[in-house]
Specification:
mainly beta; 127 residues
C-alpha cells in the first residue's frame, strides 16, 4: 500500500523560505510522476511542481524560479524547496503519486490521474 507523509509546513513572512518533505513508501514502480499540489479552502486543488522517475521536472508558471522539486537518491523522499514566498502561496500542500507513467506529460499531470495522496501540510505566508 502506497503511503505518502508530508512534513515541513509552517508560518513564514513574505520573502521567506520553507522546504517540504514527503516520505514515500509502499511502491516499487520504476516509472512514475510525482507531484506537489496545493489547495486553498473553497478552491480547487492545483498542481505546483512535478518530477518523474528520470528526474525530469516541470513547474507551473507562478512558481518558476522560486520553487524546486527534487527527490533523494533512494527516491523515498520527495522535496519542495520554496523560496521568495508570497501571501498567495498560503495553502495546504500535498504530495501525490501517479504510478506507471514514464513522464509527467500534460495528461499525466492531471490531478485525477494521481491515485495516492498524502494528508497535506499547511503553509502560511504573512505579509
Amino acid at each position: 500500500q502506497v503511503q505518502l507523509v508530508e512534513s515541513g509546513g509552517g508560518s513564514v513572512q513574505t520573502g521567506g523560505s520553507l522546504t517540504l518533505a514527503c516520505e514515500v513508501s509502499g511502491f516499487t514502480s520504476k516509472k512514475y510522476c510525482m507531484g506537489w499540489f496545493r489547495q486553498v479552502t473553497g478552491k480547487e486543488r492545483e498542481g505546483v511542481a512535478y518530477i518523474d522517475s528520470d528526474g525530469r521536472t516541470r513547474y507551473v508558471d507562478f512558481v518558476k524560479g522560486r520553487f524546486t522539486i527534487s527527490q533523494n537518491n533512494a527516491k523515498d523522499t520527495l522535496y519542495l524547496r520554496m523560496t521568495q514566498l508570497k501571501p498567495e502561496d498560503t495553502a495546504a500542500y500535498y504530495c501525490a503519486a501517479n504510478l506507471g507513467v514514464w513522464s509527467c506529460t500534460a495528461p499525466a499531470r492531471a490531478p485525477t490521474n494521481f491515485n495516492d495522496w498524502g494528508q497535506g501540510t499547511q503553509v502560511t505566508v504573512s505579509s
